[in-house]
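Entry
Fold in token form

___
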Amino acid sequence: MARKKEQPAEDAIPLERLIARLEEIVASLEAGEQGLEKSIELYSEGRRLGREALKRLAALEERIQLVTRDEEGEELGLEPFDPDEE
């Protein structure tokens, strides 16, 4: 019996490579050059990778913090990052 090529778990793939793979999948599906079975396989992989990317991005967003400083440049503390606040 032929063995499937082992793929690394999604959580072991660097986020940048994960997003690049998602872009490849989207381009392939948009080109419409794949058969139905291959398209379904790619779509399924894309859904899995998309969920993993969203999970990681949410975790990163929670970790992003701004260091606040007073007029003398002394660190006052940390506050959560708010992308809507400028």
